[in-house]
């Protein structure tokens, strides 16, 4: 009996050991990647190529890509990253209220050694580096690297060349010319700008107007807490009052308050509006979908433009394969992938300029490079404070509907900003 029990124990121990080894081996061969870019977008196409390249270099590894939505990741990241379900590498939004918050909570891997190993800081310089580095309070711009962006983005005015030509309206190069163009369109019964008050498009109009009067010190105070932020200062007052005036004059439609970004983009594609102010993430899609002659220009009269490095690759602290994860990130920075990104309407940061063949893409990349070199990227208005995105949407909607005065909107923005910024 004792010998039988002993033999059974040995057998069970062997089975358990085999099971454990099998589970460990299986786990060691899987690299889990999450991102939320559309499959046919510039980033989606480029990163799919990076996955294929990585897989070819590591046939012993199974790469398991999982597509997520932006909202899924934003709302569940702190919970998921603090669990055994955390992926090995994932796309995440930059800013103090996003990646900075996760870094502050200890949920992200410090990527500083990988930056030094792969030399990513040679491509990520100036404002591109700001959004990847966070201090112990989770404030961007200094400290260790917790995120890596392999592309850039910025806001611009997309315009319908056909509508401008048909209405004999010159394309503006100064702010005064922009106002005259908008007046000319309104006189013909055409609302000049597509808008989406319930999402980021509305924010960008308000912030861009502020940036026409701002300098880098003002941006740093707002975004990086280097000085006092007063929403009743001349700059914010100008932005709020000018936005209100634009609504009254019909430059932006009052009934756009409830619209989403997708609605605004679709309306521009359908020739309902001659212009839309929005980000370079639309560029590749417009290249594929727009049937009329279109172009872009930077917002006239402003040296500062909403923009930054793109969303970040981050490695969760609970990643089981952090070294493989950082190697995958490096694959997204390689010339073949960067060239693909650039030729599909993205803004690569490490492409071969000679490999970008589309004239519009060449102009897009050149414009971003110039903005970055001139320190003209001013980030985005919702970044500084937790929950500020929703607050901005609500306040922009009030300006569109006229349900609150400019002064009340400014006071509400101040209250939300002060309560949402990190305590240092």
From TrEMBL:
This is Extracellular solute-binding protein. PROSITE patterns: PROKAR_LIPOPROTEIN. The keyword Signal applies. Pfam families: SBP_bac_1. It comes from the Bacteria. Gene3D superfamilies: Periplasmic binding protein-like II. Keywords: Signal, Transport. Belongs to the bacterial solute-binding protein 1 family. Residues 1-22 form the signal peptide. It comes from Nocardia terrae. The keyword Flavoprotein does not apply.
């Amino acid at each position: 009996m004792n010998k039988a029990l002993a033999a059974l124990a040995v057998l069970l121990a062997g089975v358990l050991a085999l099971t454990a080894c099998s589970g460990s081996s299986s786990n060691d061969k899987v690299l889990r990647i999450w991102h939320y870019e559309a499959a046919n977008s510039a980033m989606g196409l480029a990163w799919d190529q990076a996955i294929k390249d990585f897989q070819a270099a590591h046939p012993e590894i199974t790469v398991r890509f999982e597509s997520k939505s932006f909202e899924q990741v934003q709302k569940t990241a702190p919970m998921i990253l603090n669990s055994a379900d955390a992926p090995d590498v994932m796309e995440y939004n930059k800013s103090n209220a996003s990646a900075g918050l996760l870094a502050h909570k200890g949920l992200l891997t410090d990527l500083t050694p990988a930056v030094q190993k792969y030399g990513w800081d040679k491509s990520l310089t100036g404002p591109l580096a700001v959004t990847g580095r966070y201090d112990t309070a989770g404030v961007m711009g200094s400290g260790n690297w917790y995120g890596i962006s392999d592309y850039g983005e910025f806001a611009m005015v997309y315009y319908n060349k056909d509508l401008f030509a048909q209405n004999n309206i010159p394309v503006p190069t100064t702010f005064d010319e922009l106002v005259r163009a908008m007046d000319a369109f309104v006189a013909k019964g055409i609302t000049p700008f597509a808008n989406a008050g319930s999402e980021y498009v509305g924010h960008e109009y308000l912030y861009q107007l502020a940036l026409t009067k701002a300098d880098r010190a003002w941006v740093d105070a707002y975004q990086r807490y280097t000085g006092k932020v007063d929403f009743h200062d001349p700059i914010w007052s100008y932005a709020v009052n000018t936005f209100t005036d634009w609504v009254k004059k019909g430059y932006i439609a009052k009934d756009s308050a409830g619209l989403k970004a997708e609605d605004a983009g679709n309306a521009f594609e359908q020739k309902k509006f001659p212009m839309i102010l929005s980000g370079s993430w639309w560029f590749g899609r417009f290249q594929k979908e727009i049937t009329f002659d279109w172009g872009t220009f930077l917002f006239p009269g402003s040296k500062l433009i909403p923009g930054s490095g793109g969303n970040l690759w981050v490695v969760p602290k609970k990643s089981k394969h952090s070294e493989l994860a950082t190697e995958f990130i490096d694959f997204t920075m390689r010339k073949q992938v960067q060239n693909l990104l650039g030729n599909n309407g993205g803004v690569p940061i490490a492409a071969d300029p000679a490999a970008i063949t589309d004239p519009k893409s060449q102009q897009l990349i050149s414009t971003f490079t110039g903005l970055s070199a001139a320190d003209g990227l001013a980030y985005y208005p919702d970044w500084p404070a937790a929950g500020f995105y929703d607050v901005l949407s609500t306040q922009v909607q009030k300006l569109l509907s006229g349900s609150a005065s400019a002064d009340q909107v400014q006071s509400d923005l101040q209250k939300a900003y002060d309560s949402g910024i990190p305590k240092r």
